């Protein structure tokens, strides 16, 4: 009995040493290529799957699922048969009929209609999301995909998003660990190399770069093979040849017509201007890819399409040929996300050029409503970091500006919000002792730049109010330099007697001639030179003198 039991145990052990037949399944598969089509054939789309283990051929009933940029499913393509080849590293070619023809390759599963949006989306193997990758302006769930690949441009026409095989182990073999769960890290832009389950490789479509025909994998063809003109020597776009130039919004209509500011709860027209610095005329259109901002509000692109027509070479401007370029809405939450509330609008052009436009949201100060005459200027000053307002989250537009405050306003308006003056010494003005006063370094810096000599007797008079006539000198000297000498006056203002070469009249009239001020009344035309300069007026003076922009082009 003991002998028979021992023989049975030996037989069982021997059986354990015999390799079991591989169990056919489907889940040890990854997405290795995603192709969005070409410029000439945008419907020629495909996805290539690849196994990283043996026996992954039981794919009947399993699907490739394509999602749009928001994460909504837009296409499901389901296998109705298993694969003949279940070897490790085998591939499966899932493609539209146009892609099958373009690459002369029979499909393993047909994409009955194109579903891949090059600008943004996600694709997953199987409805159980065995493997996924996202790209461009995708904003859906990030589980399994992390950061989107090639954000915000997305998938380039004529190129694939190709999985990296060098993340772990061999650089030419797909392994389970060639996947960090982050699409931006796991994929590269590559040349398409589709292969089907039979092991047949596709044929790249023929093209002749430089013949003015858009063909094959070309993104562009300007009739030459020269770099630097916008379309490269290999007929790919050169994105740096189309550069962002300017943006305006809320013109001519909005919550408050013609105020040029985006307010909470408002839908505004947005117009952008670009410049062609290449040597070839280029037809360009644009897409509003992303509109984002701080949590607590919603941001919606109402109209995402812009048509710029043809941009002439060597400095030609791109203006939308249909008004507006875009339309955006920001919600009006009960609680403002931040007092300085900025949003980001991302625009992508057909040339793969893109930029992030920073769009400030107004209504920042409760004491400067959007129908206030100084409103847009105050928002501009606040956005550019020249002022943070006054106490209690207000701006105090009617408060007079002191000479101490003016030192900060002038130097920040000229040099930017990050400007820091040198440390003070306490040896310049007797009433600016450099004993920890917040304004002391700014006042001494203003004197060092010869913008001011003080108020007389070795004093600066930091607490004195700046008058409108003094403001004229402060502004022009700060902007143009201490040596600036304005032209002689002619007698423009009824209350500013013309005294060429002396007093304030030359400075005041130069301010008028530069359209920085229109005076304080029009009939008669007065300037009110001795009136105190308040914070509302100051905003106008600073914005106009230093050319501050509320919606500036990206740096």
Rg computed from alpha carbons, rounded to a whole number of angstroms: 33 Å
DSSP helix fraction = 10-25%
Strand runs, count = 21
- Average of the residue pLDDT scores: 93
What is the N-to-C succession of helices and strands?
Answer: HEEEEEHEEEEHEEEEEEEEEEHHHHHEEH
Which sheet architecture does the biggest sheet show? 6 strands, mixed
Describe the fold and architecture.
By secondary structure, the chain is an alpha+beta fold. It has four domains: 29-190, no CATH class; 207-236, no CATH class; 241-361, Sandwich (Immunoglobulin-like); 386-546, no CATH class. It has nine helices and 21 strands. The strands form five sheets. A six-stranded mixed beta sheet has the order 6-5-2-1-9-10. Strands 11, 12, 14, 16 and 17 form a five-stranded antiparallel beta sheet that branches. A four-stranded antiparallel beta sheet has the order 4-3-7-8, with no helix packed on it. A hairpin with a 5-residue loop joins strand 7 and strand 8 (131-136). Helix 7 packs across helix 8. The longest helix has 16 residues, at 2-17. The radius of gyration is 33 Å and the shape is elongated. 43% of the residues are buried. Residues 1-23 have low confidence and may be disordered.
């Amino acid at each position: 009995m003991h002998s028979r039991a021992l023989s049975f145990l030996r037989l069982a052990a021997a059986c354990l040493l015999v390799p079991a037949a591989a169990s056919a399944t489907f889940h040890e598969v990854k997405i290795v290529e995603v192709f969005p089509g070409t410029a000439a054939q945008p419907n020629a789309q495909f996805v290539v799957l690849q196994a990283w283990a043996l026996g992954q051929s039981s794919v009947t009933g399993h699907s490739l699922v394509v999602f749009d940029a928001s994460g909504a499913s837009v296409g499901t393509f389901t296998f109705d048969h298993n694969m003949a080849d279940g070897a490790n590293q085998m591939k499966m070619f899932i493609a539209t009929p146009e892609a099958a023809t373009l690459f002369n390759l029979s499909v393993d599963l047909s994409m009955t209609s194109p579903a891949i949006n090059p600008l943004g989306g996600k694709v997953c193997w199987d409805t159980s999301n065995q493997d996924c990758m996202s790209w461009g302006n995708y904003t859906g769930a990030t589980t399994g995909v992390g950061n989107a690949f090639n954000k915000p441009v997305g998938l380039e026409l004529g190129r694939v998003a190709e999985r990296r095989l060098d993340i772990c182990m061999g650089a030419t073999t797909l392994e389970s660990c060639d996947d960090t769960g982050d699409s931006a890290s796991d994929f590269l832009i590559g040349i398409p190399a589709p292969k089907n389950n039979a092991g047949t490789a596709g044929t790249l479509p023929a093209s002749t770069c430089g013949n003015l025909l858009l063909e094959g994998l070309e993104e562009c063809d300007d009739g030459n093979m020269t770099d630097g003109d916008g379309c490269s020597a290999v007929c790919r776009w050169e994105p740096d040849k189309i550069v962002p130039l300017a943006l305006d919004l809320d013109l001519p209509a909005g919550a408050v017509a013609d105020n040029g500011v985006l307010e909470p709860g408002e839908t505004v027209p947005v117009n952008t201007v670009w410049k062609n610095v290449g040597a070839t005329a280029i037809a360009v259109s644009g897409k509003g890819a992303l509109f984002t901002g701080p949590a607590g509000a919603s941001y919606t692109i109402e109209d995402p399409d812009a048509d710029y027509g043809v941009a002439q070479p060597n400095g030609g401007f791109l203006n939308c040929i249909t008004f507006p370029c875009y339309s955006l809405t920001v919600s009006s939450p009960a609680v403002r996300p931040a007092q300085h509330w900025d949003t980001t609008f991302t625009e992508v052009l057909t040339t793969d050029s893109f930029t992030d436009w920073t769009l400030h949201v107004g209504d920042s100060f409760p004491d400067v409503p959007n129908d206030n005459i100084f409103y847009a200027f105050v928002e501009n000053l606040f956005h550019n970091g020249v002022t943070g307002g006054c106490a209690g989250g207000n701006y105090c537009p009617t408060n007079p500006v002191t000479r101490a405050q003016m030192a900060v306003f002038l130097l920040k308006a000229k040099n930017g919000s990050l400007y820091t003056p040198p440390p003070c010494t306490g040896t310049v003005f007797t009433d600016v002792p450099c004993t920890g006063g917040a304004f002391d370094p700014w006042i001494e810096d203003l004197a060092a730049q010869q913008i001011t000599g003080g108020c007389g007797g070795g004093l600066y008079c930091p607490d004195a109010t700046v008058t409108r006539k003094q403001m004229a000198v402060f502004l022009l000297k700060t902007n143009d330099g201490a040596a600036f000498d304005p032209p002689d006056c002619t007698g423009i203002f009824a209350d500013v007697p013309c005294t060429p070469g002396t007093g304030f009249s030359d400075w005041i009239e130069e301010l008028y001639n530069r359209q920085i001020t229109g005076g304080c009344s029009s009939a008669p035309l007065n300037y009110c030179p001795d009136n105190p300069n308040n914070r509302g007026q100051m905003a106008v003076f600073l914005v106009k003198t230093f050319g501050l922009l509320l919606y500036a082009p990206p740096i």
